[in-house]
Design a protein that fits this description.
The complex is a heterodimer of chains A (about 250) and B (about 300). By secondary structure, chain A is of the alpha/beta class. Chain A is built from 6 helices and 13 strands. With about 300 residues, chain B is α/β, with parallel strands linked by helices. Chain B has helices at about 15-30, 40-50, 70-80, 95-105, 210-220, 230, 265, 300-309, and strands at about 1-5, 30-40, 55-60, 85-90, 110-115, 115, 120-125, 130-140, 145, 165, 175-180, 195-200, 225, 255, 275-280, 290-295. The chains are: A alpha/beta (about 250), B alpha/beta (about 300). Chains A and B meet through helix 3, helix 4, strand 7, strand 8 and strand 9 of A and helix 3, helix 4, strand 5, strand 7 and strand 8 of B. Bound molecules: flavin-adenine dinucleotide.
Chain lengths: ~250, ~300
């Protein structure tokens, strides 16, 4: 069995996003870019499944600009066997991304698709759910544990009220939460090896899909700033301020 | 315009987030129907009839909706979505799970976590962990929307008099099975609805030390939360996590104890009305968003706070 795993190139999570002066978006010029953290968990899980002998091949897929090749090379260095890059200059919405994934799934016939539960740029949290809908496959989102049992997947999901367990048929789409695993680091020899692993490039236009965006971004604004606070010297002063100034206790 | 709000409930009663979602629907404007989908959920439907401003309560009560699996809820939503201009649900793990699935089945985009309604087709939503706000306009025929509940006041839970209409349910998709839910059964108030929250971070050192926060919480009628580092370290369960990838909350008072204030944590609490930070490092970024900062060792400050209350 083959696993298809999605990886997205995003602004490094340690870097604070800056709004462009013309309010057209976020300034990414010369910004440090990395693999979306949740995608790292998805890649790690796929590699662990292969190491455990549950699956044979890990194929990494990214959809984006030519530089997304760096993110795919990173996935290859971590242990993915080969990679596919669907090239586009446009920033696609999750629905369009799901359509591209579907086209690749139809070509590759994986038994499982692993994606991150959200990407830390647009924070949409949609792609995995949309892909499983388009494929008419089951979904298991926000996974913090995954076991393959008798041709099905047993998944623990992090939900607002605790941990939910579901069992889904395969093939399925699973979206990774951060506690699914602790991603490994790529060793230098593996980084070198990754340069020679196969990476196929496909132009988005050649897939013949309707990927038109349904939303227009009118402007991107700074969030309202909080007024500066004060430092208190003691617990007594804190309690006094909370009682008599903020009046919250 | 007519708006469908998909309620979150536990069969017996509505989850508070539903009321905030109804307010977002009011702001868009139009008749509001509330869908209650579950197995044995007529009590929740009765409660829903009281919600102020709701036109009809649609009840889908069927064994296929046990565990509210995304596949079955999405199919049900798709079967009635054609009657509406907008379909809304709260951006909770419940809403985030089924709504994108319903949207894709309808070949529509989803507008995630709106924080403001500008008009019937234009909304503001946070991106980059709330470090920017995007104003977006949707051209889709049906707008499928999840709502950031902290940005909308709850609708009144009483004063309404909607009728309950039973709707046709669909066969189980057969794709997935709900096996169970484990929650830490706490007597304390729920994190997302609490007026006061006290959260601990890696500085707490272990789960045992969270009892200090619980003692303060009990005196204040507060909920207890945590940073991701505290959850990852196993001090407290995952449902305590506040942040970009945990719960987004905006209580009247948020007390951060031994939390450094990473971007991802701030994303979940920086809309709180009053923020207090207790941290031994005067350079900790949490002080940049706090109204009252106390540079102190938490192991001295928290017991002292407990005594002072
Ligand atoms: C994709 C992604 C998503 C994330 N999502 C979330 C999220 O949803 N929520 C979240 O919280 N984090 C999230 N994080 C993690 C986040 O980046 C930080 O790592 C985390 O918030 C740090 O937790 P902390 O403040 O408890 O720990 P630390 O950063 O280690 O801070 C501990 C603090 O405790 C203080 N301290 C230590 N001992 C004492 C003492 N005795 N008295 C007083 N103060 C003391 C220290 O001075 C320090 O400031 C995410 C990260 C990524 C990459």
């Amino acid at each position: 069995m083959k696993v298809l795993v999605g990886v997205k190139r995003v602004l490094d999570p340690q870097v604070k996003a800056r709004v462009k002066a013309d309010k057209s978006g976020i300034d990414l010029t010369n910004a440090k870019m990395t693999m979306n953290p949740f995608c790292e968990n998805a890649v790690e899980e796929a590699i662990r499944l292969r190491e455990a002998g549950s699956i044979e091949e890990v194929v990494a897929l990214s959809i984006g600009v030519a530089k997304s090749e760096e993110t795919l090379r990173n996935a290859l260095a971590l242990g993915a066997d080969r990679a596919i890059l669907v090239l586009t200059e446009e920033v696609l919405e999750p629905l369009a991304i799901a359509k591209v994934f579907k086209a690749i799934v139809e070509k590759e016939s994986p038994g499982l698709v692993l994606v991150g539960k959200q990407s830390i740029d647009d924070d949409c949290n949609q792609t995995g759910q949309m892909l499983s809908a388009l494929l008419d496959w089951p979904q298991a989102t926000f996974a913090s544990n995954l076991e393959l049992v008798d041709g099905t997947a047993l998944v623990t999901r992090e939900v607002d009220s605790g941990l939910e367990t579901i069992n889904v048929n395969m093939p399925a789409v699973i979206s990774a939460d951060l506690r699914l695993n602790v991603p490994r680091y790529a060793s230098l020899p593996n980084v070198m090896k990754a340069k020679r692993k196969p990476l196929e490039k496909i132009n988005l236009a050649d897939l013949g899909l309707d990927t038109a965006n349904r939303m227009t971004t009118i402007e991107v604004m700074e969030p309202p700033a909080r007024a500066a606070g004060v430092m208190v010297e003691s617990v007594a002063e804190l309690v006094d301020k909370l009682r008599n100034e903020a009046k919250v206790i | 315009m007519s708006i469908l709000v998909i309620a979150e409930h536990d069969n017996a009663s509505l989850v508070g987030a539903t009321l905030n979602t109804v307010t977002a629907a009011h702001q868009i404007g139009g008749d509001i129907d509330l869908l209650i989908a579950g197995n044995g959920c007529s009590a929740a439907a009765q409660e829903a009839t009281q919600v102020f401003g709701v036109n009809r309560v649609l009840l889908a009560d069927d064994p296929s909706l046990e565990g509210q699996l995304a596949e079955n809820i999405a199919n049900l939503v798709v079967s009635i979505a054609g009657n509406y201009s907008h379909v809304l649900t709260a951006a909770t793990t419940f809403g985030k799970n089924f709504m994108p699935r319903a949207a894709a089945l309808l070949d529509m985009s989803q507008i995630s976590e709106i924080s403001e309604v500008i008009s019937a087709d234009t909304f503001v939503r946070p991106v980059y962990a709330g470090n920017a706000m995007a104003k977006v306009q949707s051209s889709d025929k049906i707008k499928l929307i999840t709502v950031r509940t902290t940005k909308f006041d709850p609708a009144a839970a009483t004063g309404g008099s909607a009728a309950v209409e039973t709707i046709e349910t669909l066969a189980d998709s057969g794709l997935s099975r709900f096996l169970g839910l484990s929650s830490s059964d706490s007597e304390r108030v729920e994190l997302t609805s609490a007026a006061i929250v006290i959260s601990g971070g890696r500085g707490m050192q272990n789960g045992e030390n969270f009892h200090m926060l619980e003692s303060v919480a009990d005196k204040l009628g507060a909920a207890v939360g945590a940073s991701r580092a505290a959850v990852d370290a196993g001090f407290v369960p995952n449902e305590y996590q506040v942040g970009q990838t945990g719960k987004v909350i905006a209580p009247d008072l948020y007390i951060a104890v031994g939390i450094s204030g990473a971007i991802q944590h701030l994303a979940g609490m920086k809309d709180s009305k009053t923020i207090v930070a207790i941290n031994k490092d005067s350079e900790a970024p949490i002080f940049q968003v706090s109204d009252y900062g106390l540079v102190a060792d938490l192991f001295e400050a928290v017991p002292e706070l407990d005594k002072a209350l």
